[in-house]
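Tutorial sheet, problem 5. The two components below are modelled jointly, 639 residues in total.
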Amino acid sequence: MTTPAGVEVRLEDLRRSYAGVTALDGLSLTMAPGELVALLGPSGCGKTTAMRLVAGLEEANSGRVMFGGKDVTGLPANRRDVGMVFQAYSLFPHMTAQQNVEFGLSLHKVNAAKRRERSGEMLELVGLSKYANRYAHQLSGGQQQRVALARALAIQPTVLLLDEPLSALDAKVRSRLRDEIRRVQLEVGTTTLFVTHDQEEALAIADRVGVMNAGRLEQLDSPVAIYSRPATPFVAEFVGLTNRIPGMVKFGMVEVRGTELPLVQHDAPTGPAIALVRPEAVALASEHDSVPGPLIGTVIAVAFLGATSRVSVDLGDIVVLAQLPTAEASAHPAGTRVRLAIRPDPVLIAREVEKAPVEA
Amino acid sequence: MSRSRRVKLQAFRVTIFILLGAFFLVPIGAMFEFSTRGNSVTAPRTMEAWTNIFQTADLVKAITVSLELAVITSVGMLVLLLPTMVWVRLRLPRVHRIVEFLCLLPLTIPAIALVVGIAPLYHWIEINLTDSILILSFVYLIIVLPYSYRALDAGLAAIDIKTMSEAARSLGAGWGTVMLRVIVPNMSTAILNACLLSVAVVLGEFTFAQLLYFENLQVAIGYVGLVSAGTSIAVSVASLIFAFTLLMILSFFGRPRLRIAPIEETVIPGPLGPPIGPK
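Model answer (structure tokens):
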């Protein structure tokens, strides 16, 4: 199989609204050739709209879509040369897996012999050579999505678009297929846009993750940076768990219950604020002193997660989560008194003090 | 389910089947019996009424014309209705109810009212354009709309037309290809159903043809009945058998494909190797 070189994909100030409601509010994004970018965000954040604009399935109100320096904004979907895998099972039920894969090739005027050869290669790539003659209803959900991936890649698209392709699958199949999609994408080298609302999926599969909120891109960065150095309070709270602990900003630091923490936003104005602290930045120590202190509380629950455990500590006015190695957490069963220590990593602050103290 | 309950259920099914079968077959049997009677009670059975069908030129012509009307109406209905319904589902879902209302409207209008309304138009067409009976297909298109719409709507609802058409479009298909190679093959049963209903309605239609002074099958049967009751009954039985045959064809095409259980998820060999951990 020939490996097509990926092309640069650029979205320039894309805007789209429906009946006065803004779905996409000036999205700009550049994807390097062969890169896999995941758009992550809650329902209604505009990520699927962005993908549909790239696919040509909808028209933008303004902005441009560029593939390899060529403006494709005005091209209809069937002339954009994109491969797409949908959230819903999209195999044509009246065709076998092989016929599905050959469908796009026949539209590109590839002769029968070449079609058969290419579809065979694609089905082999996704590990379904043996099932070439099966119809969609004879395949499991994961197999159908793999055939859909083979079908999308068979036409050697300029861009591969994956619209929550794993959402309809159960957890075990989802995790395995996620790895397989990444392997296939690396093998063919096609520039790929992956849309998902599942942060674990996005962080695991992408070269870069774009977190979207209310039609805008909040942050576009590597998975590690998105998790450990979130640019905005929304990203900090949407990706991973975050403790929202009330504090006071002064002298470029935020004081949280007697502990001073450096700030990500150096220019934050003095005054009350909510510090966003990751559970893994919270450590526990046994505390036998019954005198209450700002970081002394009672363990109310321990959730076993495998190698780590999540401990919920009631400090009286708020509940703080700490994520620890399971061996360490087992020393603090529910009901024990503990003293918290917050690692002095730079933290983000949010100004809205009315939200719940702990949020996922 | 216990064995006695299963037996009772089976007996109930067989009873219903026999009763319904009798309900439909006894009248047809009686018609057949009548059409094969001789000229007197004691006369031997004869197939004269059946052979008369092919010897009555007007009847043969009416059968041919009705079949032509059935084909033209079915094709016209499909060409008009299917793309419209697909387009409404994909692009204009907000007008779905309006289209449904318009398509079902002919059910609520008495045939005589429609004829009175449409007669001047037909007179004008006959005088200025053509007096062919085939122009009846225009009005038949209207009266088959409710039945065809229901059949096609059920077919469209059974498939994810939006995802399939978008998948086909992303693979390079134009709208014509989407219709002919993706949508139509996936709703063949609904299309056959709609066609069968159209054919049945057209073959059984009497009021419009009679009041607009055309001679279709039902009008011809009426005339033949005045001369030979046996022949008119034989034609009626033949048209019923024709409709049953169409139903048989439909059920044959509509039979679901042989189902094979999905295969277990497989591990894909590749440069990164199989996933780590228990399968």
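Marking note: The mean pLDDT of chain B is 84. Full credit if you identified this.
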